[in-house]
Amino acid sequence: MLLAKVVGNIWSTKKKDSISAIRLLFVQPLGKNLKPDGSALVAADEVGAGFGEMVVVTEGAPAMQAFNKENLIPVDAVVVGIVDNVDLAGGGTVRKK
Question: Which architecture does CATH list for 2-87?
Answer without folding.
Answer: Beta Barrel (2.40)
